[in-house]
Amino acid sequence: MNTRIDHDWHTERMKRRILVIYTGGTIGMQSTDKGYLPMAGFHDLVAQQLKTGAVDKLPKFDVIECSQLIDSANLTPTDWTQIGQLLAIHWQDYDGFVVLHGTDTMAYTASALSFILQGIDKPVILTGSQIPLLELRNDAQDNLITALLLAANYDIPEVCIYFNGRLLRGNRSSKIQSAGFDAFDSPNFPWLARVGIHIDLQQSLLLERKVPSLLIPEFDAEAVAIVQTYPGMTARPVEAMVDDTSVRGLILQTYGSGNPPDANKALIQTLQRASDRGIAVLNITQCSQGKVSQGAYATGATLNRIGVVPGADMTLEAAFAKMHYLLSQSLGVDAIRDALQRPLCGELTR
Ligand code: ASP
After folding, report:
1. φ and ψ at 25, to 5 degrees?
2. Is 79 helix (H, G, I), strand (E, B) or coil?
3. To 10 degrees, what angle do helices 77-90 and 106-116 make?
4. Dist. CA 102 → ligand 1 center (Å)
5. Ligand 1: which of 26, 27, 31, 129 to mutate, judged by most atoms within 8 Å of the beta carbon?
6. Mean pLDDT, 10 residues at a time, over the chain (350 residues)?
């Protein structure tokens, strides 16, 4: 994604400067005969869609528009590096950041950025919309305006998602609705803020501000695979992943409190082979709420014996991004297995 700085709006009202990074997604899409597609010129769109004078009341912000705007279904971990680099390059010049992103993989990117930017001292708020800003009836305008106001007026040293009145920790978020405006939730962690008539920020939940390193890693897009257990599954898809030498991390999504079908000996042997081959295998639950207790049942306890690491209450998105992040850090597999079980930036509850 190449970039160019598009615009600068000034207002005397608010002193803080915000950088908006537009990556694509429904918020800036247009309806075409092929379906919705991202379109360039987000700054003009905002000026055109907001009521006359409204832009002047917003915090001062610049827009950087990625030259290759994407439907976030096409996102790869390489894009995380590019977004992270944009944030790092401009970190000292702005007081807060708003990343406009498609909703489909927003929770993956928010999770990845939370690991990349650990210890930040400024807000990074991802938002987007279910209906494009261009359309008469939309959720884009509120999401954009509120994300800008949050980034400008509140000390939030975290990567967050703002969507439909909810400010959520990025690495606790999941997309839970394909069509509703309430598209995101954080089922295992309270909302950081509820936005209604008032903005009710839960200060006590926020991460501690530190000094971020802003060293943005490169990701190997093929290094992490995901496999979900299902009734009657065979070991074959897992064998293919374990035999794929580019795979160095495997996310296993098991039933309930972390239970695999352990009567399936071929599956368990394959998972054992993955551990022996130095693949970090992380067990998370398929349930949207709750955590893995690997050993509550004998089925789950089997995983303890073959080196599979319990992922507590991490979302799939956080588990996937954390695995990628740790693999990008030139750590040995034991250090990775250890770090997977510890919270790095509020992504899991011990
Ligand atoms: N497919 C779109 C995207 O993720 C959906 C959205 O933005 O709501 O880019």
Report:
1. 95, 170
2. helix
3. 50
4. 4
5. 26
6. 45 73 97 93 87 83 93 97 97 97 98 98 98 96 97 97 98 98 98 97 97 95 98 97 97 98 98 98 97 94 97 98 97 98 97
Catalytic residues: 26
Task: Print burial letters for 114-145: b (CB count within 10 Å at least 16), e (below 16).
Answer: bbbbbebebbbbbbbbbbbbbeeebbbbbbbb
- Which sign, positive or negative, has the C-alpha torsion 108, 120, 187, 198? negative
Pocket probe mutation, ligand 1, options 1, 23, 27, 29, max atoms within 8 Å of Cβ: 29
- Residues lining ligand 1, judged by CB closer than 6 Å? 24-26, 71-73, 102-104, 128, 130
Q: How far apart are CA 199 and CA 221, in angstroms?
A: 38
Number of the ligand 1 atom closest to the C-alpha atom of 24? 9
Domains and CATH numbers, the chain: 2-205 (3.40.50.1170), 224-340 (3.40.50.40)
Report how far residue 339's alpha carbon sits from residue 323's, in angstroms, rounded to the nearest whole number.
Answer: 9
